[in-house]
Design a protein that fits this description.
Strand order of the largest sheet: 1-2-3-4
Helix content: under 10%
Order of helices and strands: EEEHE
Mean pLDDT: 78
Number of strands: 4
Radius of gyration: 12 Å
Largest sheet: 4 strands, antiparallel
């Protein structure tokens, strides 16, 4: 799964993983509230856009499911 093009997203590296959260799309009021996980070792072995996994966030509680 790939995410939409964005800017101003937050990224954190934890161990061998990169977590990418939110950001703004190409339109002024196009904001993202999504979270992706990228395993760093997978980036070197294949196309990184294929290895990006979306993590579902509950809309009601804002908790990771």
């Amino acid at each position: 799964m790939t995410g939409a093009p964005r800017e101003s997203a937050s990224a954190s590296v934890i161990g061998e993983s990169i977590y990418l959260f939110g950001g703004q799309g190409s339109k002024e009021d196009d904001y993202f509230n999504d979270l992706f996980h990228i395993h760093i070792n997978d980036v070197y072995s294949s196309n990184p856009s294929v290895m990006m996994n979306r993590i579902k966030i509950s809309e009601e509680s804002n908790e990771v499911e």
